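Hey, can you fold this?
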Amino acid sequence: MNLQRFGIRLLNPFTFLRRTTSFKFKRHHSAQAKFPTIDGRVDVSSELLKTKNEKGLELQTHYQKLLQTTYSGGGENARQRHTIRNKKLLARDRISKLLDKNTDFLELSPLAGLDLEYGTVASAGLVTGIGTVSGQQCMIVANDATVKGGTLFPIGVKKQLRAQEIAEKNRLPLVFLIDSGGAFLPLQAEIFPETGGRVFYNEAVMSANGIPVICIVCGSCTAGAAYVPTMAEEAVIVDKIGTIFLGGPPLVKAATGEIVSAEDLGGAMLHSSISGCTDYFAVNEEEAIDKSKQIVSTFNQSGSSPAKGPIEPPLFKTDDLIGLSMFDGQDLPMYQVIARIVDGSRLQEFKKEFGVQLITGFAHIEGFMVGIVANNGPMTSHAALKGAHFIDLCCQRSIPIVFLQNIIQEGPSSDGAKMGELIKDQAKMMHAVACAQVPKITVIVGGSYGPESYAMCGRSFDPSFLYTWPSAKVAMDTVDNLVLKYKSQYAESAGEGDDVNKEARTKFQSESNVYYGSSRLWDDGVILPQDTRKFLGMSLRASAFSSAEQRRISGIYRM
C-alpha cells in the first residue's frame, strides 16, 4: 500500500507552518549564547549495537505492517463499495485535499481500536490529527465510513473526545468531516450514558471560548451524529451524498409506514434552503472542501512567523536511535538519546552534579526553546527535588517541557524514614508537574512504571501530547515484579505451580505491550525513535496557541 497517498510520511521530514504563541516560545537566535554540546558518541561498529539495531528494525517492520493494515480501514471490499458504488472519497483522501499543498498531517493514535474485546476497529473508526488549512493549523476529525459504516464504537468516542481536548487546550480550530451512522447500537450502553453527548457539549464550550468549529457533511449524519453539524459554527453539506436526520427512511417506514427518500427526509437542499441546519450547499466533495478552506480563512487568527536564523540539526544521526531504543532500563543511554533529538545536540544542563538520576536542562527542538526532563536512573529524593525545581523554572519562564520517560524502580527498602522522604519528595515533583501551566509533551522511550511515571507526566497527569516508542512498556511494574506480587497476593486462591505463573506472565506481558495501550488510547500514537524530533517539533507548533494561563502564587522554591 502506498502510504504517501494518505498524506502520511513515516520516514520523511514533516513540515508545518510556524505560528506565534501566547506563550512566547523561545526560538534559537544567532544573538543568543549557544548551549554546550552533548557528547553523544556511540560505537556504531560494536556487535552489541549492531544486534540491537537489527532488533529495532524488526520492531519497525512490525509497526509499519500494523499501520498498513489500519490504513486499509474496513477492507478492500468496503473501500470499493465506498468509492465506486457510493462515489465518495476515502477519509484520508478527504483530509489530503483539505490540507494546504506541501504541508503534512500529524495523525494521532492511528492504531487505536486494535484487537479490542469487541474486535478490531481500524483507527477506532475515524481519523484525527493536526494539519494546515488556509494557513491555519487545525484539528481535523474524519469518520471512516468503510469501518462499520462510520458508526461510533466506545473507542471511537474516546478518540473523538481526545481530539477535542487537544484542540481546546491548544486553541486549534476544529474541522469535522462527518460520514457516520451514529452509535454502534450493540454497544450503546458503553457509549450513551456517560460520554455519548460530550462531543456536542465540547462544541458549544469551544465556540464560547472563541475556538472555531466547522463541519462538512460528506455522508450519512444519522442519530446523534446529526448534532455535530447543527452545533458547529458553520456547516457545509454535499448534494446527493450528505444527509442529516435523527432516524433514516427505514426507521420512518417501520414507525409510520411512510416511504420517504433520504434526500427528501434530510438531503442537502432541504437543510440548506428550508431547515437551515447547514449554511452552504456544495454540488460535490471538492466544492465542499473548497468552501471549508474559505471558511477557515475567515477565522482571523494570527499568522505564522519563521524562526530567526537557521535551525541546527543534531550532530548525530537520528537513525542511531533505532538500535539505542532496544537497550533496557539503566542501559538506555539517555544523553546519547537527547543528543539525537535536540538542535545541534546542545543542552544547557541544570544541576548536573545533583540528583544525577534525572537529567534536566534547556535545549531547542526545531527552533523552540524547551526544558528537557529525562530519567537516568531510579527517581531518588534528590532527583525528584531537582525535577520539581526545574519544572517551576520552566513555568516561570513560559518554556514548554519535554519529558523522556524511562522509569527505573528501586527495590523495596526496610528503611522507613528513607522511604518516607522519598515519597514526600516524589510528591513534590508530582505537584509541580500537575500544576505546570505550560505545554507538556511526554515520550515514553523505555519503561513507564508505577507512581514514578506520574512525576514524569504520564497519561493521568494530562500531557499535551504523549507518544511511545515501539520498544516501550507501560504497566504498574515490570513483568517480573508483577508476577511476584501476583503470586504473593493470589497464590492461595489461584493455586500453586508453573501454570499459574505462566498464565500471569503471559497476561502481564500482553498488557504492558505498547500496542495494547495504544489501541486503548493510552497514548497519542506509537512513533519510530528516529522520528521523535519531528513529532516533537510538530507538537510544539501545535501548542503555540495553548490556552493555559500563567497562574503562579509563589516564586521559585528551593529544596
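Oh, and this one too while you're at it.
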Amino acid sequence: MNRKPRLFALISAAALALAACGSTDEGAAASPDGDVRFDVSTVKKVDEIAALLPPEIAEAGVLKIASATDYAPAEFRAEDGQTPVGYDIELIKAIGNVLGVKAEVTHAQFDSIIPAVGTKFDASISSFTITDERIKVVNMIEYIEVGSAYAVQKGNPKGFDPANPCGKRIAVQTGTYQDEALEKLSAEKCSSSPIEIVKYDAQSEATTNLVGGALDSFYADSQVVGYAITLTDNQLEQVGEVEDSAPQGIIVSQQNPELTKALAAALQHLMDDGTWTKILEAWGSADAALPKATVRSAQ
C-alpha cells in the first residue's frame, strides 16, 4: 500500500456535523442526531452478485453483522443509544443492498466478535486491522487503510512524547491493534518503566478520561483521533505523526467461502462505481479508501 490515510479535516468535519442529513427510509440508518451522511437507499441490488450469496442467507433476507459500535467515526451509536451509524455501518448496509438483503447490525464487545462470526453472526465490520494472527482464524476482506495516532489534551500539558511512551498512562480500546502494539512496545522497549496501558471496552471512555486529565494519552486509529478532536470541541489534539498504516478488513468465517466471495464481489462493485469513496468523503476521509476488495486468508 503506498497511500497513507489522513486525519479528518477539522473544519470539514465540524461543518458536516452541523449539516449532515440523510434519508430515514429502510435503506439508510436513521439517526436522531443527523449522523447519516450517505443515503444508502440509492444503492440497488445487482442480481449477478446477489446470486453468489449462500441460499440460507438469501432466503432469510438478512445478513447478521457484528460491530463494536463505540468507535466513532467508523461505527458508533446515535444519540438514542441504539441506532448504529458511521462509515463502516453505511458501507455494510450498502453491501447488503447490492446483495438484496438487509444488513442487520448488532452491537458486540470488540474482543468477543471473532469467535462469534460463523455462529451467532454471518460477518463483522468493526475496524479490524488485518494481522497474520487474525487471518489464521477468519477470512478478511480489505476495504480501508488506516494508521494509528496518539491524542493528548490541548496544548499537551503533560508533555507526552510519542517517541518515549515508557512509564506513561495510555488508554486503548480492548482487543484493538493499538492494544496489541502497546503491549509489544512496552515489553520490548520499556522493561524498566512499563507503559501503564489502560484498557476500555469503549473508545468513548478513553476520550472522556483523557479530556478529564486522568490519562497522558490515548492511542487509536487516526480517524478516531481526528473525530475525537472535533467532538470535544478541540479539547484534544494529535501529537506526533500517523504511524503503522495498514488495511482493515470485513471478517467472515473461513468455513463460509460462498459468503466471503459474495461480500468481496459486492464490496468491489461499490469500490468500482465510486460509492465507497463517496461514503468516506461524506465523513471527511476519502483518502483512506482502498480500490480492491482483496481477500486475505491463511487457507
